[in-house]
Amino acid sequence: MNKITVVKENLHQIHDSNSTKPKSIIKTTTEEQNTSSCCRNRKRKFFFVILIVIVVLAIITGILIPTVIIRQDKSQSISITTTTRTIAKTTTTRTIAKTTTTRTIAKTTTTRTITKTTTTRTITKTTTKVTTTTEKDLIKLVVKNKVNGIFNTTIGGNSMKSTPGKDIGNYIDKESPDKACDGNLKTKYVSFGGCREGGNQKYCGLNTGFYFELERGLTLINGIRICTANDRRERDPMIVSLEGSNQSEANLTLGISWTLLYNDTSGLENITARNVCGLPQLFNNTIEYKSYRFLVHARQNQSDCVQYSEVQLYSF
Ligand SMILES: *[C@@H]1O[C@H](CO)[C@@H](O)[C@H](O)[C@H]1NC(C)=O
Ligand SMILES: *[C@@H]1O[C@H](CO)[C@@H](O)[C@H](O)[C@H]1NC(C)=O
Ligand SMILES: *[C@@H]1O[C@H](CO)[C@@H](O)[C@H](O)[C@H]1NC(C)=O
Ligand SMILES: *[C@@H]1O[C@H](CO)[C@@H](O)[C@H](O)[C@H]1NC(C)=O
Ligand SMILES: *[C@@H]1O[C@H](CO)[C@@H](O)[C@H](O)[C@H]1NC(C)=O
Ligand SMILES: *[C@@H]1O[C@H](CO)[C@@H](O)[C@H](O)[C@H]1NC(C)=O
Ligand SMILES: *[C@@H]1O[C@H](CO)[C@@H](O)[C@H](O)[C@H]1NC(C)=O
Q1: Residue 185 pLDDT
Q2: Contacts of 267 by beta carbon, 8 Å cutoff, 6+ apart
Q3: What's the 152 CA to ligand 1 centre distance in angstroms?
Q4: Ligand 2 pocket list (CB less than 6 A)
Q5: Helix or strand holding residue 300 (H, E)
Q6: Is there an atom of ligand 7 within 6 Å of 302 CB?
Q7: What is the distance between the alpha carbons of residues 179 and 191, in angstroms, rounded to a whole number?
Q8: How many angstroms does the Cα of residue 308 sit away from the middle of ligand 6?
Q9: DSSP state letter for 158
Q10: pLDDT at 238
Q11: Which domain of life is it from (predicted)?
């Protein structure tokens, strides 16, 4: 019994040292223990220990859980703020992106305006080129020997010499082929071709023209312009051709000597005015020749001849 009591007392002492708070409870239980049996005291102590454990656990849970919750709340709130910051950053980036897009659009608009201006400038330049380079790029037709009048001649075919007169194969003496290359719009070249004066056949004046060798030698030609004579629009050339050759003198009568450069409209289709030039007819040619042959293949309307004041060659 004594031994057990000592153990009890020791347990009390342990309890006292462990838990300082419930001293009065311990005293009352000790008083009850004195009056009741040992097993009951053990049970009570055991429950008391459990109670303390529960209280301690309650305190721990009471303090720790809220702390954890608060911490979690804090972490959550931190994470929220971080998210908000991220959102805010994204929004800023989007705003920047939008601004950049607006700037790009603005730049594109400016470029378009520049392009438009450039196009307008190019058009103006082209228009200026037609007017100014007409004189600048015009090749002065200074011929080596003479301008050779021809008739009954087709592209690539042999040239047939034309002579002054008013019959088949003739040209008007004072309206000779050289008048088409003299730079004077008041003079003209009149050729009857397969007809005589007063004729009215469809072929009158067709397949006529001239050829020459340039005094200056090899020259690149890539444009041609025809000018109307003083009267009779029906005599105006409509379809013309230009050939080039490196041959000279007698060899130029041979069709094999010639290379076709242009075979198309004269540029006089809509021109009714007299002693004026049509639009320059440009063509792609990169080869220089020293001799050129011009032929008329169609005229404006029925007549006994073909006539024109000038044939101008260009090197653009
Ligand atoms: C025209 O040339 C052809 C050959 O190409 C010839 O037969 C014809 O007689 C020529 N016409 C004249 C009027 O010389
Ligand atoms: C004419 O001569 C020039 C210069 O030699 C040359 O470039 C061109 O090819 C020649 N043309 C022909 C048809 O031979
Ligand atoms: C004409 O062509 C022939 C053969 O190609 C040549 O021998 C002759 O020298 C040429 N004549 C002239 C004047 O160029
Ligand atoms: C020249 O052009 C006419 C059409 O205007 C065509 O009938 C003819 O075949 C052409 N000649 C050559 C040699 O290309
Ligand atoms: C000539 O006039 C007609 C009708 O107006 C037009 O279609 C054509 O392009 C004109 N040709 C030239 C070379 O100006
Ligand atoms: C010249 O050649 C270019 C490219 O092939 C073409 O675009 C142009 O229309 C040609 N010009 C003429 C007058 O034929
Ligand atoms: C061609 O001439 C005839 C007769 O003079 C005329 O009736 C016709 O209208 C003319 N055609 C053109 C396209 O000028």
Answers
A1: 96
A2: 225, 226, 278, 279, 280, 281
A3: 6
A4: 218, 246, 259, 287-289
A5: none
A6: yes
A7: 12
A8: 27
A9: P
A10: 98
A11: Eukaryota
Q: What is the DSSP code (8-state) at residue 165? A: S
Radius of gyration of the CA atoms of the chain, in A: 58
Instruction: Give the HSE-up count for residue 6: Cα atoms under 13 Å, Cβ half-sphere.
Output: 3
| Size of the chain in residues | 316
Query: Cα 293 from chain centroid?
Result: 41
Helix (H, G, I), strand (E, B) or coil at 295: strand
According to the model, what pLDDT value does residue 281 have? Answer: 96
* Beta strands 163-164 and 170-171, pairing class: parallel
- Low-confidence residues of the chain: pLDDT under 50: 1-35, 66-70, 72-133
**69, two tokens:** 């919750």
Which residue of 130, 284, 286, 314 sits with most ligand 6 atoms within 8 Å of its CB, as the best mutation to test the pocket?
284
| Nearest atom within ligand 2 for CA of residue 244 | 13
Type and span of the H or E element at 243: strand 237-245
Return d(Cα 157, Cα 149) in angstroms, integer. 15
What amino acid occupies position 135? E
Q: What is the largest CA-CA distance in the chain?
A: 173
